[in-house]
Amino acid sequence: xxxxxxxxxxxxxxxxxxxxxxxxxxxxxxxxxxxxxxxxxxxxxxxxxxxxxxxxxxxxxxxxxxxxxxxxxxxxxxxxxxxxxxxxxxxxxxxxxxxxxxxxxxxxxxxxxxxxxxxxxxxxxxxxxxxxxxxxxxxxxxxxxxxxxxxxxxxxxxxxxxxxxxxxxxxxxxxxxxxxxxxxxxxxxxxxxxxxxxxxxxxxxxxxxxxxxxxxxxxxxxxxxxxxxxxxxxxxxxxxxxxxxxxxxxxxxxxxxxxxxxxxxxxxxxxxxxxxxxxxxxxxxxxxxxxxxxxxxxxxxxxxxxxxxxxxxxxxxxxxxxxxxxxxxxxxxxxxxxxxxxxxxxxxxxxxxxxxxxxxxxxx
Length: 364
Ligand SMILES: Cc1ncc(COP(=O)(O)O)c(C=O)c1O
Hints:
single chain, alpha/beta, Aspartate Aminotransferase, domain 2, two-stranded antiparallel sheet, globular
């Protein structure tokens, strides 16, 4: 068997046809920026996630930057971010001129709950990242942030559709940032992102910032930029969103299969809470001291895996910062993402499980 970590060419033929049809519709209409598809995407996401406002933009990294700018975070300000995340979380903070203050994570890569020890008089904001699709405990985090008068920007790039206490990932913070990068659970056929907020004033500002500061053409009220979503991507997302729920169901079925079958492997740490609703089963990250050997063994058996991520941010040259970050670094050294996506087949999941068991010397 040959099993890719994720092969987006496996999108089924019927869905490919609907996407081609959408492309040809938009080509015939000649609308490539703004328009009805963008409006439809906004309203579909608002109703799906129960968010008052949804402002699409060019990608998830821009969403973070727009969020920080909308909250007037910049030079002289500190922003608390987890040591383990995709680089964008820290990158956006540096890009607006603020300083990321890295904090340790728990064993699953989520911002450790004692993060408020990092608060100084310069701290303006905290950015929890719902890594691998698992949500940080948001009611506790928001409560603490309020006590310190800090803004909360949720990096919900990996957790689209996860829900905690009835509230969707991205709707807990002052602003929530989404990514529709193609590999995400709701992924476009290119780059796209979005800011969510429940505050009308912030929504207006994000919209202005993402469109040259203009409420209407040629009237520039503030210095913005062009981070508009592409109409084609909005159109594709309007098609793909219809598949989201069924894709989620398949992810959960396969995640359950992995959990049931791999829980007997004592040398593996499995993802916590992946079957709960506050996890969208974006990635299935197992942890083992023999990570590198396991990855090579699986590759030799035709199984693609990935590492999210091999280095923590404060160990990277542009972001270098002191700190122990023991748990975050352990995850970087020991985490391995097994294939988990709606294009897999049950036999493939079973084959992966067999090979993992074989690696650890367990043959049933
Ligand atoms: C945690 C996290 N934050 C931010 C981003 C940035 O999203 P994008 O790739 O759309 O810029 C991503 C996606 O790659 C991500 O995984």
